[in-house]
Amino acid sequence: MSKLIPQTLLSDIPDLYETENTLDPICHVKLFTPDSNFTWYIIEFSKADVSTCFGFVQGLDSELGYFTLVELESVHGSLGLSVERDLSFTPTPFSKIKGE
Question: Which one of 36, 49, 69, 98 has the lowest number of neighbouring Cβ atoms within 10 Å?
């Protein structure tokens, strides 16, 4: 069970590889470090291990890739603040996120 994302939201995110043939998948959740420049947008979530995510990461570079909720729960920014979920974020097409 993730501390970052409630189970009700996780159940709405497609399983890993479900959107691999989708031209413009939806970013369902936005996580960020309030005291750093890293942001994670979750496109898919592993229903099997309940941790692995596929999504768009903005930080030193911007790229699609895999990350786990377990690792994000241990990340702290330069002031020691933990990763947070953007409560005002609504599901958004990847093309819009990438274009911002």
Answer: 49
